[in-house]
């Protein structure tokens, strides 16, 4: 790790970076294949549900990672884009009968536009001020929806039960298709992160994250690059929101627009490794099972032991591995190890 | 491990079987899922519910002197060879997604034959959808949002009255008391918090006011858990309605009583949509200001003359939680009682048979601890005989004042005086 502490690490040779990226891609493909085969060995509905949630949060957290990790703009208002996606697809289904497969894309677009609209004023703020502003904007979104009768207000929206159909994302009691839907989502989010990591944008974002002034002096257009990151992040989060709404079958402001959701979206990436390709998936694979299993098997006593375990885990990881769980494997993202502390 | 438990069970069951001269094999337990918020901001509700269901299961399963209620004879489900109901608890932490996952887990792993829940209407929305998909009955003990029973679900049964029933009772009360005293209600002020509870409640009240020719003098929606309600109190005073109809949780309920007092406004009458106003901490927190406040309720703890089972059941509950039954816990006791009766009548632990038996439910109010006429389900699964009551604070405690069949006192009516 000596090079990580050096003030200016020697630039790696291009072919080293290429080799490394090729290795990441191969690992991604292998993992995708393994995850695609995994459901055939899981017949238990509860474990399937666990896998679905892990994949969904891996995707959501990866979406957050694009803006919060690579670009360094810590957003605590992602529940808004998540909610916009969920509400858009559900409203299109209920009012216009548009199948959620298309509603998902519309939800993503609305989420992306939402992120741009929030970014326009908020990106003029920096650091903590930006983070606080996103909290406030998220809360405003929550209040708007809870008081807006057209979208069901506080009563929320129920997705009607229909026959089995991929178009309508309705599979009766079968969970297998949902595993593939969420796997597709997580894989898409990973691919986007992979592509931008190696692109010109990715380098701009990391430059912006490390030092805005230095980036500007190197002709990086700071504001547009933040906006681009926000749009991509908002789009993916919106798609995730649409998937969640269809999966759960019921949404209301408390369950998808609450501020706690913004934390839940950011947490896997933060715990797993901010600004790394594998951090969000790793964080999600650890956090979600711990939270779900402890609640299911310890929570029914009402003693709160499950929450202590969950909280204790977060504290322990933050203390032992401040760079995230990813550092256990010795991998650093191209953005890893620098610019944070 | 399993073998040892089976052997142990057989060893324990054998003397009982001999004593009762039964030739039947030891009956298998009937697992029932109970999904409540056991953690999070409503954990206290979940803890109280846990105790209420435990007490009810003990009454149904245990060997004791018969209680004057349906399933109060003890000894398990008679038509299933004395099978015991076994409760399997799960925590939904007030999150619809978690509620959904827990319902699935209970059905697929614990093989529960029915689920009872769930306090908040948002979690009931997802649990009942899971139950519909898996074809397992869902008994709504305490979810009051009317929309839940309007989704065309076949496996949804709600023993409690819903918010529409509650508000209808309030306006029926106005009519009654107006005719009796000659001082009818001419105007009301609606005052409600902005979550699903307050919104639903006010929508129905607004409609019922119009239907009954009663003017809505003020229609005030406020943010739940507000730090201050002074501005709202001023508006209520300016409106000056005959009756203030609040739908609030407890902290807001205390706050608005104090705020109205500070601006010197004392409405002629207050008729609350239960919730915060029914809690002991409201009566303690509002002190003298609470005197004379009216509230609807689905439970009447003082109706012991017509509902004799209240005393023993409440005593059993007090032994666990160190407090009496309230509106929520009494309805939870009744939900499990009604379900156990249906399983017993079905003579089977198959969900489909239980559903059939539930549709034929006909429980008389006197066989429960509730002041209701009884329990019968319509085609939507809503109990049509769950008649609510109106109670009034008198010397620091609620007493039932309406309807006359279960009332213990006349209402003190201050409108128009």
- Mean pLDDT over the full residue set of chain A: 86
Strand order of the largest sheet of chain B: 7-6-8-9-10-13-14
Give the CATH level 1 class of chain A.
Mainly Alpha
Structural class call of chain B reads alpha/beta
Overall mean pLDDT score of chain B? Answer: 89
Assembly state (oligomeric): heterodimer
Number of strands of chain A: 2
- Biggest sheet layout of chain B: 7 strands, mixed
Report the structural category of chain A: mainly alpha
What's the alpha carbon Rg of chain B, rounded to whole Å?
Answer: 22 Å
State the end-to-end CA separation of chain A.
Answer: 15 Å
Under CATH at level 1, the class of the largest domain in chain B stands as: Alpha Beta
Side by side, the strands of the main sheet of chain A go 1-2
Work out the helix count of chain B: 12
Tertiary shape of chain A: globular
Kindly identify the CATH topology of chain A: ABC transporter involved in vitamin B12 uptake, BtuC
Give an overview of the whole structure.
Chain B: Residues 1-25 form the signal peptide. Chain B: It comes from Lichenibacterium minor. Chain B: Keywords: Amino-acid transport, Signal, Transport. The complex is a heterodimer of chains A (341) and B (417). With 341 residues, chain A is mostly helical. Chain A has 14 helices and 2 strands. Chain A has a two-stranded antiparallel sheet. The two termini of chain A are 15 Å apart. By secondary structure, chain B is of the alpha/beta class. Helices cover 41% and strands 16% of the residues of chain B. In chain B, helix 8 (250-262) packs parallel to helix 9. The radius of gyration of chain B is 22 Å and the shape is globular. The N and C termini of chain B lie far apart (73 Å).
């Amino acid at each position: 790790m000596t090079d990580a502490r050096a003030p200016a690490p020697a630039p790696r040779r291009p072919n080293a970076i290429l080799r490394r990226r090729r290795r990441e891609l191969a690992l991604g493909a292998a993992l995708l294949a393994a995850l695609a085969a995994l459901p055939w060995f899981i017949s238990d509905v509860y474990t399937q549900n666990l896998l679905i949630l892990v994949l969904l949060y891996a995707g959501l957290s990866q979406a957050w990672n694009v803006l919060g990790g690579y670009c360094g703009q810590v957003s605590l208002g992602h529940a808004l884009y998540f909610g916009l996606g969920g509400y858009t697809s559900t409203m299109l289904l209920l009012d216009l009968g548009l199948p959620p497969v298309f509603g998902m894309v519309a939800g993503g677009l609305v989420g992306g536009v939402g992120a741009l609209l929030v970014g326009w004023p908020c990106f003029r703020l920096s650091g903590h001020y930006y983070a606080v502003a996103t909290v406030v904007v998220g809360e405003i979104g929550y209040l708007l929806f809870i008081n807006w009768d057209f979208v069901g207000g506080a009563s929320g929206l129920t997705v009607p039960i229909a026959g089995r159909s991929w178009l309508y994302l309705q599979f009766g009691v079968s969970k297998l298709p949902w595993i593939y839907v969420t796997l597709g989502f997580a894989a898409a989010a990973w691919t986007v992160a992979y592509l931008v990591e190696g692109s010109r944008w990715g380098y701009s974002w990391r430059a912006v994250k490390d030092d805005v002034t230095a980036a500007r002096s190197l002709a990086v257009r700071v504001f547009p690059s933040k906006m681009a990151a926000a749009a991509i992040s908002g789009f993916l989060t919106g798609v995730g929101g649409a998937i969640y709404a269809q999966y759960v079958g019921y949404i209301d402001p408390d369950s998808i627009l609450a501020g706690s959701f913004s934390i839940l979206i950011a947490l896997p990436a933060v715990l797993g490794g901010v600004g790394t390709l594998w951090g969000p998936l790793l964080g999600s694979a650890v956090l979600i099972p711990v939270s779900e299993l402890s609640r299911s098997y310890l929570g029914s006593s009402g003693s709160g032991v499950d929450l202590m375990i969950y909280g204790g885990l977060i504290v322990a990881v933050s203390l032992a591995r401040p760079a995230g769980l990813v550092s256990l494997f010795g991998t650093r993202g191209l953005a890893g190890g620098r610019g944070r502390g | 491990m399993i073998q040892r438990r089976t052997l142990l069970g057989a060893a324990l069951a054998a003397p009982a079987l001999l004593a009762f001269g039964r030739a039947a094999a030891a009956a298998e337990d009937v697992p029932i899922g109970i999904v409540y918020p056991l953690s999070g901001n409503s954990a206290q509700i979940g803890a109280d519910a846990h105790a209420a269901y435990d007490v009810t299961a003990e009454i149904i399963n245990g060997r004791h002197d018969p209680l004057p209620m349906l399933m109060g004879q003890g000894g398990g489900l008679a038509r299933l060879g004395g099978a015991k109901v076994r409760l399997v608890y799960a925590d939904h932490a007030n999150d619809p997604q978690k509620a959904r996952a827990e319902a699935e887990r209970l059905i697929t792993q614990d093989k529960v034959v029915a689920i009872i829940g769930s306090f908040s209407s948002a979690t009931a929305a997802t649990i009942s959808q899971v139950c519909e998909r898996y074809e397992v009955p869902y008994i709504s003990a305490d979810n009051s949002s009317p929309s839940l029973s309007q989704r065309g679900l076949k496996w949804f049964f709600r023993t409690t009255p819903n918010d529409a029933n509650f508000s209808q009772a309030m306006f029926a009360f106005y009519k009654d008391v107006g005719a009796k005293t000659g001082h009818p209600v001419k105007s009301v002020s609606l005052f409600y918090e902005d979550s699903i509870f307050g919104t639903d409640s006010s929508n129905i009240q607004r409609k019922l006011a119009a239907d009954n020719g009663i003017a809505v003098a003020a229609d005030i929606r406020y943010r739940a858990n507000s730090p201050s309600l002074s501005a709202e109190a001023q508006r209520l005073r300016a409106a000056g309605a005959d009756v203030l109809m609040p739908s609030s949780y407890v902290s807001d309920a205390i706050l608005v009583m104090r705020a109205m007092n500070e601006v010197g406004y004392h409405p002629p009458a207050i008729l609350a949509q239960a919730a915060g106003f029914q809690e002991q901490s409201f009566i303690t927190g509002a002190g003298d200001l609470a005197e004379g406040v009216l509230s609807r309720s689905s439970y009447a703890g003082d109706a012991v003359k017509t509902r004799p089972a209240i005393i023993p059941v409440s005593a059993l509950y007090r032994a666990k939680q160190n407090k009496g039954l309230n509106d929520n816990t009494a309805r939870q006791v009744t939900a499990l009682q009604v379900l156990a009766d249906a399983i017993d009548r079905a003579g089977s632990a198959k969900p489909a048979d239980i559903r059939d038996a539930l549709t034929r439910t006909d429980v008389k109010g006197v066989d429960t601890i509730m002041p209701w006429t009884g329990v019968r389900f319509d085609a939507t699964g809503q109990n049509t005989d769950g008649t609510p009551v109106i109670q009034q604070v008198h010397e620091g405690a609620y007493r039932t004042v309406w309807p006359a069949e279960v009332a213990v006192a006349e209402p003190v009516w201050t409108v128009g005086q």
